[in-house]
Write a structure and sequence with these properties.
Shape: globular
Number of helices: 3
Distance between the termini: 46 Å
Strand content: under 5%
Length: 87
């Protein structure tokens, strides 16, 4: 069960690396949209589920908080900006 915690933290770090590289226009493999969707949306959701399945400990907490922050920055803030821009 501890492997789920390690996987969750790895998913968090990878999604943050994708987000930071996109934010600063560095791009990991250019400006690949499937990589941005995978790294910004799919991996944090899977990371939250794997953090839920892991044993209690620091990896579980880091997985929950990190993947939640990653989802907030890649999904929540653009959606809120879209709502405010639209209306």
């Amino acid at each position: 069960m501890n492997k789920y915690g390690i996987a969750s933290v790895f998913m968090f770090f990878f999604s943050m690396a994708v987000f930071v590289s996109d934010f600063f226009n560095i791009g990991l493999l250019g400006r690949s949209l499937p990589l941005l969707i995978l790294g910004g949306w799919i991996l944090p959701i899977v990371g939250l589920f794997s953090a839920y399945k892991s044993n209690s400990g620091i990896l579980k907490v880091v997985g929950y908080i990190g993947n939640s922050i990653s989802l907030l920055y890649t999904v929540g803030l653009p959606f809120a900006a879209w709502l405010l821009w639209k209306f």
